[in-house]
Design a protein that fits this description.
Oligomer: single chain
Number of strands: 10
CATH topology of the largest domain: Carbamate kinase
Number of domains: 2
Structural class: alpha/beta
Number of helices: 8
Largest sheet: 4 strands, parallel
Distance between the termini: 34 Å
């Protein structure tokens, strides 16, 4: 949503598309799990009295809107893309079939996974961890608003400590809001590293892929 309070900023979608295009040109197979908080937050709606399953399904539909916006931005940059949805809606996205998704990656397409896991009570963080396992990914790149993981919210606490590396257990024990506990546990069980970095800084995605010290790495 960029600097807007709500919605989709085409300039931001275009910037993300260019960043993804840069790593695609290196031959990196890229899958994207996208959230929907800029349009609708299921947990927030649930807290205001909406039934949780309904709210979560509405949140999943918001991720499909974002996935289509990102697909459009990628294709305008000449990058072949497929949107794969955990909730079937064949007019706009393919249903999730693991082997088909792997084949798209092998053919050099960017795969955008929409609608989370397709189940209420699971976040898009958990969806990212799950899809990463299914796609045999080497790493999860968690693109955020901040430049890594801190001991507390750096926007609120001036004395928050930045971590270059941190273990899964430390994240869970300290209750750090990197990804939810289910996602962290899944990555820990499967020894899948997570790199948390700032998305809006141009070139960061390429630097992470090239192994430069960007953001915070979560590992065993």
């Amino acid at each position: 949503m960029g600097d807007q309070p709500f919605g989709i900023d085409p300039a931001v979608a275009s910037q993300i598309a260019r960043e993804v295009g840069e790593i695609q040109s290196l031959g990196v197979q890229t899958a994207v799990v996208i959230g929907g908080g800029n349009l609708f937050r299921g947990l927030a709606a649930s807290a205001r009295g909406m039934e949780r399953s309904t709210a979560d399904h509405m949140g999943m539909l918001a991720t499909v809107i974002n996935a289509l916006a990102l697909q459009d931005a990628l294709e305008q940059n000449g990058i072949s893309t497929r949107v794969i949805s955990a909730i079937e809606m064949r007019a706009v996205a393919e249903p999730f079939i693991r082997r088909r998704a792997l084949r798209h990656l092998e053919k050099g397409r960017v795969v955008i996974f929409a609608a989370g896991t397709g189940n209420p009570y699971f976040t898009t963080d958990t969806a990212a961890a799950l899809r990463a396992m299914e796609m045999r990914s080497e790493v999860i790149l968690k693109a955020t608003k901040v430049d890594g993981i801190y001991s507390a919210d750096p926007m609120i606490h001036q004395d928050a400590v930045w971590y270059e590396t941190i273990s899964y257990l430390q994240v869970l024990e300290q209750g750090l809001k990197v990804m939810d506990a289910t996602a962290i546990s899944l990555c820990m069980d499967n020894k899948l590293p997570i790199v948390v970095f700032k998305l809006r800084q141009a070139g960061n995605l390429r630097r992470v892929i090239m192994g430069e010290p960007v953001g915070t790495t979560v590992k065993a």
